Automatic annotation (TrEMBL):
Family recorded in the similarity comment: Belongs to the class-II pyridoxal-phosphate-dependent aminotransferase family. MalY/PatB cystathionine beta-lyase subfamily.
Cofactor(s) needed: pyridoxal 5'-phosphate
Protein name as annotated: cysteine-S-conjugate beta-lyase
Listed EC numbers: 4.4.1.13
Single Gene Ontology MF annotation: cysteine-S-conjugate beta-lyase activity
Keywords linked to the UniProt accession: Aminotransferase, Lyase, Membrane, Pyridoxal phosphate, Transferase, Transmembrane, Transmembrane helix
Alphabetical list of SUPFAM superfamilies matching this protein: PLP-dependent transferases
PANTHER family: PROTEIN MALY (PTHR43525)
InterPro entries noted in UniProt: Aminotransferase_I/II_large, C-S_lyase_PatB-like, Class-II_PLP-Dep_Aminotrans, PyrdxlP-dep_Trfase, PyrdxlP-dep_Trfase_major, PyrdxlP-dep_Trfase_small
A Pfam match: Aminotran_1_2
Residue ranges of the TM segments: 88-107
Organism: Dorea formicigenerans
Residue ranges annotated for the Aminotransferase class I/classII large domain, each copy included: 55-382
Amino acid sequence: MKERVIYKERKNTNCEKWDGLLEEYGRRDLLPVWVADMDFEAPSCVQVALQKYIDFNVYGYYHVPDSFYDSIISWEKNYQGYRVKKEWIRFIPGVVPAIYWLIQMWTQKEESVLIMPPVYYPFFNSIKETGRQLVECPLLKEDEYYKMDLELFENKILKENVKVFILCSPHNPVGRVWTKKELQAVLDICKKNEVYVIADEIHQDIVMSGYKKVSAATCGNYDEYLITLTSASKSFNIAGFQCAYAIIPNDKIREDYDQLAKKLHFTEGNNFSYIATQAVYEHGRPWLEAVCNIVESNYFYLKNELKKVMPKVKIAPLEGTYLAWLDMSDYVDPKRMKETILDKCHLAVDFGELFGGENYKSHIRLNLATSRENIEEVVKRLQLITN
Ligand SMILES: Cc1ncc(COP(=O)(O)O)c(C=O)c1O
């Protein structure tokens, strides 16, 4: 059964995307297509599960039931092909905080951590703010299709003595769903050079038709080097609950992680987050499939319409995520990108330089998880650049 996806007007609900405009952009007169959450109601199973809990109206300490872990185990097995054991799963309050912890667990100050720009900007911050050395191995671009530069990757690992690689899979913002072959190639290099891998797979469920997301951990025997971080938060628009999880199959790494968690005195999440996550993993699949269809159709609408009115805008093929990555260099001087998009188009986007600096100044990232009307409006507003 397909579940209906309901668009929601979110203005004046204290949501970052719509109500955080003034703080982020200094103005309110923008159509927001920036923050990576959806303008859709969560699937109805979330409301049902939470309502049951709210009706009981006692919010004491929670005993996390086996059914919570079972829901993750089934989801990972059915949709990621990853056979996870309960004892490998650790609650985390978000993927980003866990990245910070793992960097500190696996490296000393000044040691090198590698990422592949353009990439989700907190990766940069996690390395800089923990006092580690940032090593960049930019993705290669052929037409609009991005690939990993494996030769440069191994060279940088050796030259900069890299200890940790943060993999983004699927890759935000370029929308690649890495193939098993690509993942094996990069993970083999890590294994050979004893580089630990933080596999950020938070976008694992938003995959377009014809593509298959493969979990890095299932690509071979990489357990001694790899931790997977993921969540139901992006897939089901429940990021506000702050519930994610780490999958740590290796005993020794798990022991190290547990020691660290003990020192931070951090082990538990909140009752609502467990209930919501379990509900979507048990009942949310039809809703998710409907959302993926909407994202795909919004993407093709954007691409086809822009082709008519701004044929030189280059759009990366969308294989996964609900984020479109556009190169506007044929229309806008990169130096004037911000003022053009804000003053002329009145759009709140994520500007390309956030994802890797100067090289991406001609790019913008747009969020497709919204109504068709909003995407139509985005096209109209981008077209103003040509006037
Ligand atoms: C690649 C990636 N990792 C992590 C996050 C956020 O993770 P969390 O909210 O669980 O910290 C995002 C959000 O957009 C993301 O795109």
